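To whoever picks this up:

The nightly regression suite flagged tRNA-binding domain-containing protein as changed. Nothing in the input moved, so I suspect the structure step. Input below, exactly as stored in the fixture:
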Amino acid sequence: MMAAAARMAFASCGRLLAPSSSSSLPALPRTRGSVAASGKHPVSFLAAARSASVLCYCSDATVAPAPQAAAAEGEGEEGEKKAEVPPVEEVAALLDIRVGRVVKAWRHPEADTLYVEEVDVGEEQPRTICSGLVNYLPIDQLQDSNVIVLANLKPRNMRGIKSNGMLMAASDASHENVELLTPPEGSVPGERVWFGTEDGKDRQSEAASPNQVQKKKIWESVQPHLRTSENCTAFLGEHPMRTSAGVVFCKTLQGARVS
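Regenerated output under the current build:
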């Protein structure tokens, strides 16, 4: 019986490996005496048959990639993803930063640290904006002042008043001193601000929607790159903030963060 099992296993393996149905394996001995005469024990034939059967199916197995190759492939993909990150100046161009003029300002009735302003940003009606400037700026300095407004933020409810934008300001490291960014003399409310050279206005891209600014965290990715220089000019990296009339600045804060 063991010899018969060996013949069946070899025959099965032969059918799997053979290029055509006409090929066949040599016949195995039919008698116990013949097997003994060959010097092989029946168990050896059966073990060999089982080994051959296993080898027949290995050719269809999928070989896993080497760990080093897989790691290298992952590093390549990560490198490509990093290369796809756009320069910060391109991201900043999606922000709708405008020249504004405060036409009215008052204390928020429900929040001690907030002012409420009506700001002309070149639209049919002034925008209502809430600013946490009470501890840093007297209200008479805010009234009728020229300001810089980040205009494509999603509206926020600030203690019962919907704020539709943000006044941009510079602050020192301790946040004890805060100054509003100021457009140069001659800037017109509603003009869109840009970063770079004087002719950069003609290359401005379309601003992102408030939903896109929030979803893609555009402001959060740009803000860390905003600073004032030694002469108090507002910069994005090495690119000055501009209007058609000149560069945007604050009064006295040097090397300050802008938000």
